[in-house]
Design brief:
By secondary structure, the chain is of the alpha/beta class. It is 35% helix and 23% strand. It has nine helices and eleven strands. The protein has a six-stranded parallel beta sheet with strand order 3-2-1-4-5-6, sandwiched between helices. It has a five-stranded antiparallel beta sheet with strand order 7-8-11-9-10. Helix 6 links the parallel strand 5 and strand 6. It is elongated, with a radius of gyration of 21 Å.
Length: 231
């Protein structure tokens, strides 16, 4: 199963926890569980479908078939002892809401939940879910930005601040960054660069960029996107 940047970023944020239960092993939950386990996090995968559970045998160290809408089942599986629980149930909104509600009765786990629509997200937020994730919505917005310009990757934060991966335009090539004045002229900062077949390195005033390099640029959304479209 291919791991998208969205799954990887979410998994990286969750990997600080020593144990994570993932309930619902569809495309989102399954990819997330596999990514977490690859990062050496203790993972328990839970799904109500026997065929789905069987498909993850041998891929996840711990995977069980269970009805997550029942509080006694969650207790039997010691889900309340995990650091984080991710509710990845998407197609059955009732099961998603009931499972989240049961989990929020426990004191310990931080609860993340996937929402497939705005009303679904609103209900989860009203329940008190700590983190509501909308993969399709978030990925759609991200792709919309990628298809508009020369960006290779795109991450948006609060307040219109973004981090983008792109290639240096001609005006940013062959001279040290310190003499280019990119912050003053374009409102952006080059924070890292990578040569072809090389490794990412922090950028500084002495860094010289070339046409085939990749760079990480931070700044205001509009200014960063404008910079990525320069030739």
């Amino acid at each position: 199963m291919a791991r998208s940047p969205l799954f990887s970023r979410t998994a990286s944020r969750l990997a600080d926890a020593s144990s994570v239960a993932v309930i619902g092993l569809g495309r989102f939950g399954g990819a997330l569980a596999l990514e977490l386990e690859a990062q050496k996090t203790e993972v328990l995968g839970i799904d109500a479908n026997e065929d789905t559970v069987q498909s993850y045998n041998g891929r996840l160290n711990h995977v069980v078939r269970a009805d997550s809408t029942r509080e006694e089942v969650l207790r039997q599986l010691a889900v309340h002892e995990f650091d984080v629980v991710v509710v990845g149930i998407g197609t059955d909104i009732e099961a998603s809401i009931l499972t989240s509600s049961r989990l929020l009765k426990f004191n310990k786990p931080i609860v993340w939940a996937k929402a497939i629509s705005e009303p679904h997200a609103e209900i989860l937020e009203q329940l008190g879910v700590h983190h509501v994730v909308r993969p399709e919505h978030d990925m759609g917005r991200r792709v919309a930005h990628l298809v508009r310009g020369g960006m290779l990757d795109y991450v948006e934060f609060e307040g219109g601040f973004v981090l983008i991966r792109t290639r240096p335009p001609a005006l940013a090539q062959d001279r040290p960054l310190g003499v280019l004045g990119l912050r003053d002229k374009h409102g952006i900062t080059v924070v890292a660069a990578k040569r072809p077949d090389g490794r990412w390195q922090p950028a500084n005033a002495q860094t010289v960029l070339y046409e085939e390099d990749e760079i990480l640029v931070e700044g205001n959304k509009q200014q960063a996107e404008d910079f990525s479209r320069l030739l």
